[in-house]
């Protein structure tokens, strides 16, 4: 029998917080054969990245491997000296990080960073390595492969950077690459390009890989086997097809079932009803750069309008226009048929109260120095003028609405809450103003699927109880399918298609909507292969060139 | 490059405006000093008439605004006026040929100060940045702590104390360098350097701590960045990670603190000059304040302000240039 490339036995990892060591990984075994791709999935906090880094014999500051063994091709990485490990890293084991934009050094050109490992490890000289880099760029279908390496990271788009980073990991033709959520930060249309490029090159060079992600549909495309982690423990491991068709463990089944939440579409709006909020021919610009062009759509009371599109398509800018943070250069915003002043500074308190916002990053949207009671209490006092016991009563009521026990959470600080709980506080703060209309800006994209689903359910219940209307900004079409009544598709600052959900999800679509819909990964392990076949692989390369 | 050029021109214009405001403040402040040159030179027994005569000679009887614009017009043309003291001496001897202009008086002193600052910077900047890098590399080690303690001690000690300690060890007990820095025009470079060595060493001790600590902090601040982790995961040595990956991104704060310290070397070295009898601009400045020699005081102030503004401007421009986003726009 051939020895496996990587053997991890009973690996225990601890992280330091509050002056003591807390377990992150509680004795996980992992075996990887040469040329095999293992998918590692789990929610955030499951220890996926930590385990992935441990496979390289590396821990971040404040983290230590407290037990077990990590053996790479017969070398024990836990007892090896720093020099021995340095010789392996980059050369035989490489890493592809989640955010390529943050993981490329902003001070150096891509090619300089690419050639560093082959040169420092003494494998190639500069010109050989540059040649090879351009060749890899070509294989990864980057546009202008001979020229793109001479740019700085900020001059290259996110999807291209992610491929350049894969090329960099390949520079020494390693035996093993750890991919740590390489497509999580990308739009679906870009993600599909990166996924196919990664899969191609890994197959071409028969590189073994650990592919870390929280997205089941993605892992289904990329891996031969899947390992599911939950809070530092292995739940189960099996080959991809078995895992998808017949998961054995309850937790795995629950992960698979997550996408089942679906709100029935509401009956169509009676024609002639005055929309709650109406955007009419809005143009907007940042400085001299126009970002919105003639955007118009209506949102009716008690309904959810999902605004979808890639990053940079103008979704959040539209929200900024509605709230008055960015006064439009042309067009009108109407609230129940009445025109709102363009700037929030000129709007009345009551107009301000009607439109509230929930943000993507609950972490940064809550003041870390204020308690939950203060955070929710402020809009209660500001908009409704309640103080003292009345205010406290209202805050308690709001906390009950978001399903958090008031007595337990009133005095806590945001840092003492989980991501999902923080987002609930964000919702309560918006509700505190008793608005009619709430803008939800990517409110679930920073959350795990199970938690996100809880938030979606809560928003749906609140809509039924309070008759709220939502503008739901998202790039995740699964969320759209779950919660939307109407859909608006945006691209490059324009509305390309709009209509009821059912219409949007049945052909024929606008070409862009079609691209967007067909780019959403599905659980079928053959999905990527089929989509690529349908589109023709060359088209994807062309699409990348178009984006330049 | 257009954006960079535009930013530089903007900063330059702003620098000139700042200098203009400073000139007003200086002029007003100097004129608020109690007493004037006439009283200072004639002493308490002077008659009203003689005081008034000297004032008239020097133009001190003119209103403040007239004097300011007269002075400013001169400064713009590079003429800082004549020193009161020398003008007075000349009028006593009945000649006008002995009158020295302020520029003539300041120029050699300013040259000396620049020389001392340059020598000090040549020691201090590489030393501070080098120590900062090493301290970041071996952070929390004995070396790191020892460097910290040493530099902090030297910055916390009064300059004259450091000066006398160095004189004791390097001039008295082991006569390596001269304890008097009485340099003069036309001195050979080697001798000049030798004579300036002790004051330069004292100043090095004074400015190193600040720059070294900033270098260390700026580098350590970046060590948690994903791109540093990436460099480590590519198997790069700790030294390479810091010098090649962290340092280029830490340049802006380091450049700023270096500029601030260089400005200090030009404007704030009076004590060291006095201890070593070094004929720099600081001594001249203090002497002129004592005698109310207003043109000299004003010129010195303007030079100090210009040095500060120019160095900070240079630092700003260099920080901007160290940012690849501005050097290479999309």
TrEMBL record, chain A:
GO-annotated cellular components: plasma membrane
SMART domains: AAA
Record's keyword annotation contains ATP-binding: yes
Main localisation: membrane
InterPro entries assigned to the protein according to its UniProt record, in alphabetical order: AAA+_ATPase (IPR003593), ABC_Ni/Peptide_Import (IPR050388), ABC_transporter-like_ATP-bd (IPR003439), ABC_transporter-like_CS (IPR017871), Oligopep_ABC_C (IPR013563), P-loop_NTPase (IPR027417)
UniProt domain ABC transporter: residue ranges: 6-256, 277-517
Matches recorded under Pfam families: ABC_tran, oligo_HPY
Membrane topology reported for the UniProt record: Peripheral membrane protein
GO biological process: peptide transport
Keywords: ATP-binding, Cell inner membrane, Cell membrane, Membrane, Nucleotide-binding, Translocase, Transport
GO MF term (any one): ATP hydrolysis activity
Intracellular or extracellular location(s): Cell inner membrane
Family: Belongs to the ABC transporter superfamily.
Protein name according to UniProt: Peptide/nickel transport system ATP-binding protein
Organism from which the protein derives: Yoonia tamlensis
Lineage of source species: Bacteria, Pseudomonadati, Pseudomonadota, Alphaproteobacteria, Rhodobacterales
TrEMBL record, chain B:
Transmembrane portions of the chain: 12-33, 114-138, 159-177, 197-228, 249-276, 296-321
Keywords: Cell membrane, Membrane, Transmembrane, Transmembrane helix, Transport
Localisation per UniProt entry: Cell membrane
Family in the record: Belongs to the binding-protein-dependent transport system permease family.
Protein origin, superkingdom: Bacteria
Coiled coil: none
Any one biological process term the GO annotation gives: transmembrane transport
Name of this chain's protein: Peptide/nickel transport system permease protein
PROSITE patterns in alphabetical order: ABC_TM1
A UniProt-annotated Pfam family: BPD_transp_1
This protein's GO CC annotations: plasma membrane
Major subcellular location class: membrane
Organism, as annotated: Yoonia tamlensis
Topology versus the membrane: Multi-pass membrane protein
The ABC transmembrane type-1 domain, residue ranges: 110-315
């Amino acid at each position: 029998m051939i020895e496996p490339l990587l053997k991890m036995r009973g690996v225990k990892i601890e992280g330091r917080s509050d002056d003591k060591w807390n377990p992150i990984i509680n004795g996980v075994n992992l075996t990887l054969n040469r040329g095999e791709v293992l998918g590692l999935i789990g929610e955030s906090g499951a220890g996926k990245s930590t385990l992935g880094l441990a496979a390289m014999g590396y821990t971040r500051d404040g983290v230590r491997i407290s037990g077990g063994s990590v053996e790479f091709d017969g070398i024990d990485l836990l007892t090896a000296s720093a020099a021995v490990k340095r010789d392996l890293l980059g050369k035989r084991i490489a890493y592809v990080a989640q955010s390529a934009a943050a993981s490329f050094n902003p001070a150096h050109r891509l090619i300089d960073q690419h050639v560093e490992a082959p040169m420092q490890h003494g494998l190639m000289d500069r010109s050989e390595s540059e040649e090879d880099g351009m060749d890899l760029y070509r294989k990864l279908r980057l546009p202008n492969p001979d020229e793109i390496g001479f740019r700085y990271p900020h001059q290259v788009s996110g999807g291209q950077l992610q491929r350049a980073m894969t090329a960099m990991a390949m520079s020494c033709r390693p035996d093993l690459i750890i991919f740590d959520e390489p497509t999580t930060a990308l739009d679906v249309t870009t993600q599909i390009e990166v996924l196919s490029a990664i899969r191609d090159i890994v197959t071409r060079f028969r590189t073994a890989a650990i592919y870390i992600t929280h997205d089941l549909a993605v892992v289904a495309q990329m891996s031969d086997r899947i390992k599911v982690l939950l809070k530092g423990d292995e739940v189960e491991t099996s080959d991809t097809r078995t895992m998808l068709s017949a998961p054995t463990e309850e937790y795995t089944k629950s992960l698979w079932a997550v996408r089942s939440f679906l709100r029935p579409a509401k009956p169509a709006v009676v024609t002639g009803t005055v929309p709650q909020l109406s955007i009419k021919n809005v143009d907007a610009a940042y400085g001299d750069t126009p970002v919105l062009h003639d955007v118009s759509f209506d949102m009716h009371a008690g309904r959810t309008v999902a605004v979808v599109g890639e990053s940079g398509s103008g979704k959040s800018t539209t929200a900024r226009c509605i709230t008055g943070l960015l006064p439009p250069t042309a067009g009108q915003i109407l609230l129940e048929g009445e025109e709102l002043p363009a700037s929030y500074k000129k709007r009345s308190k009551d107009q301000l109260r009607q439109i509230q916002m929930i943000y993507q990053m609950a972490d940064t949207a809550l003041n870390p120095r204020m308690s939950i009671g203060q955070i929710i209490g402020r809009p209660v006092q500001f908009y409704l003028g309640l103080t003292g016991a009345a205010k406290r009563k209202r805050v308690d009521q709001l906390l009950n609405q978001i399903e958090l026990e008031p007595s337990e959470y009133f005095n806590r600080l945001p840092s003492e809450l989980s991501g999902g709980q923080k987002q609930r506080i964000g919702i309560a703060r918006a509700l505190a103003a008793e608005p009619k209309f709430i803008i939800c800006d990517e409110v679930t994209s920073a959350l795990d699927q199970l938690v996100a689903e809880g938030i979606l359910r809560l928003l749906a219940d609140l809509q039924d109880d309070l008759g709220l209307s939502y503008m739901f900004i998202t790039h995740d079409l699964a969320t759209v399918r779950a919660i939307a009544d109407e859909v608006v598709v945006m691209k490059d600052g324009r509305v390309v298609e709009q209509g009821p959900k059912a219409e949007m999800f049945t052909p024929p679509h606008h070409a862009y909507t079609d691209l967007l819909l067909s780019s959403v990964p599905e659980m079928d392990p053959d999905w990527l292969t089929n989509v690529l076949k349908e589109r023709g692989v060359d088209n994807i390369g062309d699409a990348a060139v178009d984006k330049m | 490059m257009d954006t960079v050029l535009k930013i530089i021109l903007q900063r330059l214009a702003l620098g000139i405006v700042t200098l203009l405001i400073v000139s007003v403040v200086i002029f007003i402040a100097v004129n608020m000093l109690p007493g004037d040159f006439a009283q200072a030179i004639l002493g308490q027994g002077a008659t009203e008439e003689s005081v008034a005569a000297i004032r008239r000679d020097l133009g001190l009887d003119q209103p403040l605004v007239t004097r300011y614009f007269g002075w400013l017009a001169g400064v713009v043309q590079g003429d800082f006026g004549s020193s009161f003291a020398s003008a007075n001496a000349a009028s006593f001897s009945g000649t006008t040929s002995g009158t020295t202009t302020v520029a003539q008086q300041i120029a050699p002193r300013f040259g000396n100060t620049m020389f001392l600052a340059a020598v000090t910077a040549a020691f201090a900047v590489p030393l501070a940045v080098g120590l900062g890098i090493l301290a970041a590399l071996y952070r929390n080690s004995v070396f790191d702590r020892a460097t910290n303690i040493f530099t902090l001690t030297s910055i916390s000690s009064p300059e004259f104390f450091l000066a006398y300690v160095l004189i004791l060890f390097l001039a008295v007990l082991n006569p390596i360098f001269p304890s008097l820095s009485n340099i003069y025009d036309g001195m050979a470079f080697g001798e000049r350097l030798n004579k300036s060595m002790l004051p330069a060493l004292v100043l090095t001790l004074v400015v190193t701590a600040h720059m070294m600590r900033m270098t260390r902090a700026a580098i350590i601040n970046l060590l948690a960045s994903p791109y540093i982790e990436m460099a480590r995961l590519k198997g790069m040595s700790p030294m390479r990670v810091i010098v090649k990956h962290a340092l280029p991104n830490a340049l802006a704060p380091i450049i700023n603190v270096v500029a601030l310290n260089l400005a200090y070397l030009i404007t704030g070295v009076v004590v060291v000059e006095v201890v070593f009898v070094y004929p720099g601009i600081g001594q001249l400045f203090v002497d002129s304040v004592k005698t109310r020699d207003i043109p000299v005081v004003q010129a010195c102030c303007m030079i100090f302000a210009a040095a500060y503004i120019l160095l900070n401007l240079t630092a700003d421009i260099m920080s901007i240039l160290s940012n690849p986003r501005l050097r290479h726009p999309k």
